[in-house]
Design a protein that fits this description.
With 321 residues, this protein is α/β, with parallel strands linked by helices. It is built from 14 helices and nine strands. Strands 1, 2, 3, 4, 5, 6, 7, 8 and 9 form a nine-stranded mixed β-sheet that branches. Strand 1, helix 1 and strand 2 form a beta-alpha-beta unit. Helix 9 runs antiparallel to helix 11 and helix 11 runs antiparallel to helix 12. The chain is globular, with a radius of gyration of 20 Å. It starts with a strand and ends in a 7-residue tail after the last helix.
């Protein structure tokens, strides 16, 4: 008999925190699930920890280490549940997470994805909550989601039918393009959520039922060059997938173009290419506090990057828009 939920766990040397993640699964009040555990070439004790979980966990090990998006696709190809959830090995779930998400999906057949609020925790201390940074939306919220992404990976549960619906024509469900776009390295999760949101309603549980454990300094700022490139690549993908995209979502296209320019400028500044960074954002210099703050910061040497990054993420959300 097929389970209600397939829990996808992708692992590469996740032993230090894997035991706690698995224990959060044992404590779920809803137990009709399987775990698809995809080992991406671990050399620590991850395999032993996973195999000790019990018969609900199906262990797979890849022949070689592949990018995370590819590993997620390989794991998804093994899933049998009518819903799919993702639990990264360093994250945790509160006990009622699966129960409440399944109940919502079963009650509302047009909802393709339901997420929960997420606590962002470092060394046991709660830094913030995702919904406090970006308020979620309900219903057909494709453009809203792209403007202010609020779905953390480990909080998402997707209806299997919704996942299958975003498989491009001609794909058999096993290929790279079936779910996660393997040409993306930092936006592959958001890209999948966007495609589901284009055709399905979204909903959320307004409780912090997911715990996202972060480690060390924030790395997002360090990848802004990649975010810029992939933001524009997703924009081009949407133009190909959805006829009339630019006319229907003119404000969104402008926002994404401006956002990609900011991300590119940050990457240039970090490389010490200050003049080029200012030139990239010049058209939007006066458009918001965010761009004015960056313009001032760009006169500082690139060695100030880490200090500026910490200051940026400490700003109120409205100043970072």
């Amino acid at each position: 008999m097929k389970p209600a939920v397939s829990v996808i766990m992708n692992c590469l040397n996740g032993a230090p925190e894997l035991a706690e993640a698995l224990e959060s699964l044992r404590r779920q009040t809803f137990q009709d699930f399987e775990i698809i555990f995809w080992d991406n070439g671990s050399t620590d004790g991850s395999a032993e920890l996973a195999k000790a979980f019990g018969p609900q966990l199906h262990y797979f090990r890849g022949k070689e280490t592949v990018p995370l998006g590819a590993a997620r696709n390989l794991a998804l190809a093994e899933a049998r549940g009518r819903h799919v959830a993702f639990l990264d090995c360093d994250d945790l779930w509160r006990p009622t997470k699966l129960e409440k998400q399944v109940a919502l999906l079963e009650a509302r057949p047009r909802v393709g994805l339901v997420c929960t609020d997420t606590e962002i925790v470092e060394k046991g201390r709660v830094l913030s909550r995702v919904f406090a940074q970006s308020a979620p939306g309900r219903g057909m919220v494709f453009a809203d989601l792209m403007a202010r992404q609020w779905i953390s990976m480990s909080s998402a549960m997707l209806r299997r039918e919704a996942l299958e619906s975003v498989v491009p024509a001609g794909e058999d469900g096993q290929g790279a393009a079936a779910w996660f776009d393997e040409s993306l390295n930092v936006c592959e999760e958001a890209d999948l959520f966007y495609r589901v949101a284009h055709d399905w309603e979204l909903d959320y549980i307004d409780e912090p039922l997911t715990v996202w454990r972060v480690h060390g300094g924030n790395t997002t700022f360090r990848k802004f060059g990649q975010f810029a490139d992939e933001t524009l690549r997703i924009l081009e993908k949407h133009r190909a997938l959805y006829p009339g995209y630019d006319a229907e979502h003119a404000d969104l296209v402008a926002l994404l173009t401006r956002r990609a320019a900011f991300q590119k400028a940050v990457a240039l500044w970090r490389e010490g290419r200050n003049d080029e960074a200012r030139e990239v954002v010049r058209p939007w210099r006066a458009s918001s506090p965010k761009y004015r703050l960056f313009w001032a910061a760009s006169y500082l040497p690139g060695s100030c990057f880490d200090l500026a990054a910490r200051a940026y993420f400490a700003l109120p959300a409205f100043l970072r828009r």
